[in-house]
Amino acid sequence: MRRRVLYLGDTELTGAARYLAGSLTALRIPFDYVPSHYTLPSHSLKRAYRLYVISDYPKRHLSTEQMRELVHHVRDGSSLLMIGGWDSFHGVGGQYHRSPIEAALPVICSRHDDRQQGAQTYRITKASRSRLFTSLDFSTAPGLCGYNRTRCKPHAREILSVETLAFHRATHRYRVERRDPLLVFGASGNGTVAALTTDLAPHWAGGLVDWGSRRIRIRTRSGIDVEIGHRYLQFIRQLMTALGLDRSRRNQPYSLKAFKAAARRRWKLEARSRNDQLKPS
Fold first, then answer.
1. Which of 212, 229, 244 is nearest to 5 (CA)?
2. Over the stretch 115-155, which tens digit does the pLDDT of each residue have?
3. Phi, psi of 36 (to 5 degrees)
4. How far is CA 184 from CA 43, 82, 123, 168, 243, in A?
5. In terms of DSSP bridges, do strands 144-148 and 115-126 run parallel, antiparallel, or are they unpaired?
6. What is the pTM of this model?
7. What is the DSSP string of 21-43?
């Protein structure tokens, strides 16, 4: 039986990783974690995970053999998600162009620095009709602060786009200057692959982590202490569902009723030891 999630990157659990790690804990999805500054332990790919998450984790910390083994697991039925950042896709230190990981992803990585960030407003829009995220109104989502520019591969499906808005003084209106993929799904063998080209943590995530009127506080024994908006958690829950997680009764995500109760009492969660981070070999 495949284990649940191997999460690579986003600095460390008490840093940027606390947003996704806290959300996985809230959704009762167990995971193993490797910080950005650790090379992937040699034993960690001996057994397949249900989902591999690579987020701000540089290619130099993965050997070519490890990347091939990870992709083999994906083609055999696991899922793969790459999340944007300075060390994702190409970025500054990601440099996944022409790697086995890029070959499996549903997007083409740039050969050069692909970071898009600045004073502009980056708006989330739905790119196609899909059963994904039908309960989320992205017109209410906060603007993003950055993303990695990629191109969709043939047969990949662009679910969400990111629009770059620029203010024109002559008309006193914002105009769309460019549109790029934000969330793209595809297949690699028997596995599902996805690319989310922005980050799930500040600063690129901007106000996305606070999206929603209800506040959710997550604390764990491993040191995670984070507060997020309920729409942000709902987005991650539906993203995990699309990648094949939280289907079992044991890992059933919290209901809307639970979210409301949690907001009233400043929800505090305790993570179990199964979420301890992996140590380098």
1. 244
2. 999 878 899 999 988 888 989 999 999 999 999 999 999 99
3. -60, -30
4. 30, 10, 16, 30, 12
5. antiparallel
6. 0.86
7. HHHHHHTT--EEEE-TTSPPPTT
